[in-house]
Write a structure and sequence with these properties.
By secondary structure, the protein is α/β, with parallel strands linked by helices. The protein has 17 helices and 16 strands. The protein has a nine-stranded mixed sheet with strand order 2-1-3-11-16-15-12-14-13, sandwiched between helices. Strands 6-7-5-8-9-4-10 form a seven-stranded parallel sheet.
């Protein structure tokens, strides 16, 4: 195709009079597509670091922009973290652990598992920052199982390993995976979730003489203050979804729990009769302030950092669509999408994210009025009501889950094919975690994300994302948070 060049002065003159120059179609696959083809960007098109790309969302703060949209297209058909060519047998795990995996038809590790497992087996403390859905749960569970088997000795009735997670749903999921493996190995796993009152809590705390304890911060903190549980015999402590555990909601509890433990600063301290606990921090993002807290209980220089090279980037195998709408248009858009999904009889599920519990309840009532079968999940629901909601979704009893960010962290959502941001998230981290519910290891499809953009602060977040995608850079404001740590070594895939 011939290249049509227009002088800069002519371009400014045309823009001032809102006249669009003729644009030759760009060859090749599109990275960004929109109804205004002059703003399309081809996959091979690049910008220099000093250029400011023209954004589709540039004028979205104006009310006349409603109805405009753009899509970040899939650039590859497969995940960026495919399974490696190795097997778990090559990672020096105890044969019994490998056989338990093979009984579940799991034979090939992902990149994160291949890097994390050997480091933990060497007795090192590890910080693993890898994309959502890259198999991090097994990356820390397998070394725990290995150590519990190979160092099978008497303990004084206290937990031998601890996995701390931010929500009951994630705790239940980790417990389910651990029990499935532990049933083949004779390893006992106990789940400790809060929100049920002191009498029930004390009953839960009885008989926690287990190999592996999976708990949420609040109830474990209460148990320690009530002297109902002790962490003196821990060989392993894992903080899963670290960015949530270190936010203002859980930070005090986590810091108090860590002060009750003895964490090894070096691999030698994790061995022998008087050994200290080996430490692992797992997450898709790492918040600021983690280093300040951990420096009180361990040597930060001893932490082995394992970081994915694709961290803080939008997954290229997932399609992202951003649509500028008014608040009144969001419900009709959702209803149309859900009815089309039901008519086409898709086997995948849908997550609809809202920013508040009130919005979840309100939207749920509307879906009820239209006869759309769904469930809802948010943090204001009683613990008894929350039990089994996500498990029912996983079993296919319903295809639609209306939820808050409580469902955006760590949950194994392989059944989800579409994520809808009914309310656009307040932070880029939240967007990455919500989008990470699709395109995971074991997912049936690459998945897609649809986001409704309504408010001016939503537009600013979208402009940040669109700029980063067009410039092929990391999402800003996130990469530096990992650099706040004192690194021992970094590994990139």
């Amino acid at each position: 195709m011939p290249v049509i060049r227009v002088a800069r002065r002519t371009q400014l003159w045309l823009e001032k009079r809102h006249i669009r120059p003729l644009v030759a179609p760009k060859a090749g696959k599109l990275l960004i597509s929109t109804r205004r083809r002059e703003l399309n960007q081809a996959s091979m098109e690049t910008y220099s670091r000093w250029e400011n790309p023209t954004l589709v969302s540039r004028g979205w703060k104006h009310r006349t922009s409603c109805g405009d949209y753009f899509t970040i297209n899939r650039q590859r058909e497969h995940r960026v973290w495919p399974e490696t060519e190795d097997t778990f047998r090559a990672l020096n795990l105890d044969l019994r652990v490998v056989l338990a995996l093979e009984a579940s038809n799991i034979t090939t590790p992902t990149w994160a598992q291949k890097e994390v497992i050997p480091s933990l087996l060497r007795g090192r403390s590890v910080l693993c920052a890898s994309e959502t859905g890259s198999g991090k749960t097994l990356a820390y569970l397998l070394p725990i199982m290995h150590k519990l088997l190979t160092q099978n000795e008497y303990c004084s009735g206290n937990p031998r390993s601890l996995v701390l997670v931010p929500s009951r749903e994630l705790a239940g999921q980790v417990t389910s995976v651990a029990r499935r493996l532990g049933s083949h190995l004779g390893i006992t796993v106990h789940f400790l979730g809060g929100g049920r009152g002191r009498r029930v809590t004390e009953k839960q705390l009885k008989g926690v003489s287990v190999d592996l304890l999976v708990a949420t911060p609040g109830i474990l903190w209460k148990g320690l203050n009530w002297n109902k549980i002790s962490l003196t015999d821990l060989q392993y402590i894992v903080l899963d979804e670290a960015d949530t555990l270190f936010d203002k909601t859980f930070c005090y509890f986590v810091e108090s729990i860590l002060m009750h433990t003895q964490i090894a600063s070096h691999a030698k301290e994790a061995q022998g009769h008087d050994r200290k606990a080996q430490f692992a921090i797992i997450g898709a993002t790492v918040p600021k302030g983690v280093g300040e807290i951990l420096s009180k209980v361990m040597d930060l220089g001893s932490i082995h950092i394992i970081k994915s090279g694709k961290l803080h980037l939008l997954m290229p195998h997932v399609q992202h669509t951003f649509k500028k709408v008014t608040g009144a248009d969001k419900v009709p858009e959702v209803l149309q999408m859900l009815k089309q999904h039901a008519a086409e009889k898709h086997m995948s599920g849908i997550f609809i994210f809202c920013n508040t519990s009130k919005t979840v309840n309100w939207l749920s009532y509307i879906l009820d009025d239209h006869g759309i079968k769904h469930t809802r999940l948010h943090g204001q629901m009683p613990a008894e009501m929350r039990l089994g909601i996500f498990e029912a979704f996983q079993k296919g009893q319903t295809d639609v889950l209306v939820c808050t960010n409580i469902a955006s962290r760590g949950l194994d959502s392989c059944r989800v094919g579409t994520v809808v941001n009914f309310d656009f998230p307040f932070t880029i981290e939240d967007y990455l975690h919500r989008a990470g519910r699709v395109g995971r290891v074991g997912s049936r499809s690459q998945g897609s994300v649809l986001s409704f953009v309504t408010h001016s602060w939503d537009v600013e977040q979208v402009q940040t994302i669109e700029t980063a995608v067009r410039m092929r850079t990391y999402l800003p404001g996130m990469k530096s948070k990992l650099n706040d740590f004192v690194p021992n070594k970094k590994i990139k895939n």
